[in-house]
Amino acid sequence: MKKRFDLLDVKILEGLGIHGPRNITSLARKLGVPAETVRKRIKRIHSTSFFRTHVNIYHTNLGLKKALVFAEAIPGYEDLLFESLKINDFWIYLSRCYGMNEGCVGIYTIPRDNCTNFKQFLSEIERLEVTRRIDLYWSTCFQSVNLKCNWFDSASESWNFLWDKWIEEIPTRTTRLRYTLVDPLDFIVKGDKIDVLILKELEKDATVPFTKLAKILGISPQLIRYHFYEHLKKRGLIEDFQIVVFPFDRAISDMFYFIFKFGNGEKLARFAVSLMDKPFVYTLGKILEDNALMANLYIPKAEFRNFIDVLSRLIKAGLLQSYFYVIQDLNKTLRQTISYEYFGDGSWIYEHEKHIKSLQDLVKHRKLEQSILV
């Protein structure tokens, strides 16, 4: 692979994922290099690559249920489908996609008491004939998989793709999953309004100083610090820090969403654990009440056929049952923070009737507009 980072770069990126991006001095001490060297390296990576740091919210402890949506567009209505999915206020990620179907992929965080309403919202998109089919998967919160050094060759300063080694290690991995990949017992709101406001800022930038946060939110730095340590951390509202970087050249790589299905929970667990240190993995989530796994992957085009061949071998060996994937269109992608505007008095405000009415008005207007153009 084309050189993008050297070994120290990768060690810094790995260290940011393990120790967090808020204390560069501590990270530099652990790496045995000057803090200024680490800061300069991070600044260079930021200027030459796509690089972001943000907190990964544990939405479960805010009473929110993660929903992954795959929607196949009716030809001619691809953009309308995208806009229709955006009508619901609780989306956090939307992207056009192609591959096994042309359409959209969306991620939502839905208040636990409004899951039925959300299903009705998706059904209305189908009824309005904007989509051929919508598949909804309720998921655990997503587990971040930050960059690791283990597939990086320090001699050539490039990435190796050790597919055969990966196949061999899967049956040997533990079946103990992180709590983020285990079906939660309940979805209880453990935060307050200040917590939610802090979280939405940390989603934008995990390194924002408490003093700056205080100015943005109009409260004291001392109150920010209290909520960060006593609420966000102790109440489990933050899962971890996610270090977002493209380790491979974006011009020759693709981003995917995969759904992997397994014969039992043990096989799912071994497969999931085996992905926790791979450089092509961004996030993982377990589909609730099912032996299925969601994976957000970033793979060089030259390695994708090898990856699919590996999946075929795993199916033949009985370690994997089946899979489905879409390729994301990174040029037509939107993100937004947690829907803080709709939180107050310890609960979420979900305006189902507004969503349905806005959806119906949008589709009616766009289809009328399109018929006039034809």
Description of the structure:
This protein has three domains: 1-49, Arc Repressor Mutant, subunit A (Orthogonal Bundle); 53-190 and 236-374, 2-Layer Sandwich (Alpha-Beta Plaits), CATH 3.30.70.3460; 191-235, Arc Repressor Mutant, subunit A, CATH 1.10.10.10. Helix content is 39%, strand content 27%. The chain contains twelve helices and 15 strands. It has helices at 7-19, 24-31, 35-48, 78-86, 115-127, 163-169, 193-204, 210-217, 221-233, 265-274, 301-316, 352-373; strands at residues 51-57, 64-73, 91-99, 103-111, 131-139, 143-144, 152-153, 158-159, 238-245, 253-261, 281-286, 292-300, 322-335, 343-344, 347-348. The strands form four sheets. The protein has a nine-stranded antiparallel β-sheet with strand order 5-2-4-3-13-10-12-11-6, with helices on one face. The chain has a two-stranded antiparallel sheet with strand order 1-9. α2 packs across α3 (35-48).
- Taking pLDDT < 50 over at least 5 consecutive residues as the criterion, the unreliable ranges are none
Q: Helix/strand/pairing class, anyone?
A: alpha+beta
Number of domains: 3
- Using DSSP, what is the number of strands? 15
Helical residues, percent? 25-40%
CATH architecture of the largest domain: 2-Layer Sandwich
Q: Strand order, main sheet: write it out.
A: 5-2-4-3-13-10-12-11-6
Order of helices and strands: HHHEEHEEHEEEEHHHHEEHEEHEEEH
CATH class of the largest domain: Alpha Beta
Kindly report how far apart the N and C termini lie. Answer: 48 Å
**If helices are DSSP runs of H or I spanning 4 or more residues, what is the number of helices?**
12
Range of strand content: 25-35%
Shape, please? globular
Main sheet record: 9 strands, antiparallel
CATH level-3 fold name of the largest domain:
Alpha-Beta Plaits
- Average of pLDDT: 94
Q: In angstroms, what is the radius of gyration?
A: 21 Å
